[in-house]
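Newbie here. two chains, one complex. Structure please?
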Amino acid sequence: MPNDKSFHMPSKDFKRYGYQIIDWIADYHERVEQMPVFSQVSPGEIYSKLPDHAPQQGDSFQEILKDIEKIIMPGITHWQSPNWYAFFPANTSGPSILGELLSAGLGVQGMLWATSPSCTELETRVVDWLVEMLDLPSTFKSDNTGGGVIQDSASSATLCALLAARERITGYSSNQTGCTGRLVAYASTQAHSSIEKAVKIAGIGSENLHSIGVDDQFAMLPDQLEQQVLKDKQHGLTPFFISANIGSTSSNALDPVAEIGEICRKHKMWLHVDAAMSGTAALCPEFRFIHRGLECADSYCFNPHKWMFTNFDCDVFYVKNRDALIRTFSLLPEYLRNKASESGEVFDYRDWHIQLGRRFRALKLWFVIRHYGIRGLQYHIREHVRLAQLFADWIRRSDDFTLEVEPPLNLVCFRHRGGDEINQYIMDTVNAGGKACFTHTRLNDHLVLRLSVGQTHTRENHVETVWQLIQQASRQYTSNGK
Amino acid sequence: MPNDKSFHMPSKDFKRYGYQIIDWIADYHERVEQMPVFSQVSPGEIYSKLPDHAPQQGDSFQEILKDIEKIIMPGITHWQSPNWYAFFPANTSGPSILGELLSAGLGVQGMLWATSPSCTELETRVVDWLVEMLDLPSTFKSDNTGGGVIQDSASSATLCALLAARERITGYSSNQTGCTGRLVAYASTQAHSSIEKAVKIAGIGSENLHSIGVDDQFAMLPDQLEQQVLKDKQHGLTPFFISANIGSTSSNALDPVAEIGEICRKHKMWLHVDAAMSGTAALCPEFRFIHRGLECADSYCFNPHKWMFTNFDCDVFYVKNRDALIRTFSLLPEYLRNKASESGEVFDYRDWHIQLGRRFRALKLWFVIRHYGIRGLQYHIREHVRLAQLFADWIRRSDDFTLEVEPPLNLVCFRHRGGDEINQYIMDTVNAGGKACFTHTRLNDHLVLRLSVGQTHTRENHVETVWQLIQQASRQYTSNGK
């Protein structure tokens, strides 16, 4: 930082406080294991501790850092605790944090190739690497018809896929009125809420999202899909889009992509595959069965910000045919015209998503891949799956608990056989205790507990602990004569 | 970081490399002034320097840092150079970079209040502060009917506003088919391309975005707007949304919000006001004229990531009635249910935008406001406006150059009187020289040069330099006998 007066932070202060925050983060990741995982504050508590008005005069940075501990930390729910089994992992790592720091320090905009060529080209290179690393279809590579781009989240990726599908089926006529009136999209009953959100946003209408039933492992029934498509066509509707899950949020169900893909091909529908958490498993050859049939997909996404040690946000979104995406989003006002764009030799990633501006997110992903190497990443994915399977074995061997589904990877859905009340009690008790946390879903009309293993530093002793806590809470409930 | 073997970065390495990157950033901001502003690389140059395949074994972090200098830096276009006058500012500052670092270190998800109460409540507090700081309508505050939320970009904010407007006019019937067929949106001919992008995404259709003419300062003509609305109603269409600019991208035009608001009120249309760059000027009482009439707006956004020393992404989006927004986006799958959400006492910000996941972006904004204080921020905004006005004076006093519009704030639109060719030459020559950079637009069928003053460290000597460079290039063109 240039050392000028006038309120800016001088270089020496930036270094001093920068080191302090680096130390603080290193220390936080060491002590987070000891902290109550879910924040215990009440609504409004943090808000009311913050002053009513912004300061007229600047505060010292030392004061700000004190307030982090005093005001902010009590309201933090610790997603980076190795005792985190709730919702889904949002794991991170040292190299990722440093990549985010460098990206903030450079402060470049990657909206056009010209606004920082490295931002675009490193991204293209790293997402090309990932095609090989996960053994994805080669059509997703930039030297083929497709390509990948970093999006903020799978919700946005799904929306982009749906919009590209809508434009393809309507002949890129989104400048025309009411083109969306008779389009129908499909997803299983287990699809993530982002599918319905996307369908609403795109003006398709939720009633035109048709839910397809699932089998006993909550995977979509392709026969039912095909019947529904045929019925809809008979009613004069236009089936155009389907979103398949590789690892549903609720229970990690794996939709049969190959069979679904065949139906899409026959009926000329866009197949989007959402592998938000589970896609990362394909780093390991033994888990690549999850991607069977993926060559049928028009688009695909997975989130390194869930299970690949890269901090949020970092969703990687691929399309088989990049022209479909670019034609959907490209608009070129005069003030963005430039020679590189007009040469057609470069990607302008703003044409691959909703936003115009974009951060240099490829840096953190590059740091993670280079630091761990493929082998390091594989090691941790295997370890997480091993721990989840170990926990599943304990459940299998227990008299009181049962697995609701066979866990394919790192998410275990289980419940006490005693009904919803005891399961609710177990969850509330363990979570209130602060030593571990997990969340729930409903499957087969049961309240089902979800143990999602994926935090960077979760190891066998942590999983043993949460199992002890669950059993304790179970015994407590019983001995309380409830 | 817990010190375990198995590929993770040990705590001591994280500290060591963390300090190195902090030092590197401090140094970068000192030397960036000397670097060619626009990257000079050719398409594909960076991509080809990166290995074809991801490494099997992890690399040392020292190697990665070397490659930053060797491979990445030549492809960086330096948005943080004080010689940056292109497009718009995307300025940042020490406190903001440290806030982003801390946010990455904590690695929390703010999708629900419960997933980190501090992430939600600090955000609410800081955006409430900003209502006072910019003297915005009090209905935008969280203790009133409205509220603010941090979005990634003004493009997303505009889309959210448009969707909430669509849902309000159709009675929140986005689950129904073809509800969008006869809706019409409005914006001036100078509106940002994100408006058209949003209209396409929402299924309204570009042909239903009606462009309204502008006056000689490129501000929307309210009479023409009203005539168009009446005409559209006569044709059986439903006017429902208008986006007004406070500071258009091309030339910083200020639409007459009060007059437009009156038309919106009469015809029950949603008024969105986009003040992406210029909103920040309202930190200073003398520039608050830009917001005249804002009490009529249903929604409003401005970007601290443009001109308020907060690194991208950080757009602040306000609505007058938060229910309209929440009803548009809220979907509650079982796996996200929790007591706090059901109590109705908390904001779950995932219901305020498109994405589900969200970063802890309020931290960097809080750091910036606390570090600078209102006075520090005002000082720099005034200084940027003063420098732009100084440059405008030089243009006024020049025989060769002319102002295309009177600059209201920090963006100067000017051109050489000699026609498009010399202006193109001047821009290309200065940009190729690397000592400063600016971009262009078209106004009144002229190629017009834009000097956008807003980088954190731009001072009078930098503006003097770019003016010298422009005059030199102009003389060069003439003496080359072109």
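Moderator note: Chain B touches chain A through 168 residues (CB under 8 Å). The radius of gyration of chain B is 24 Å. Thread marked as resolved.
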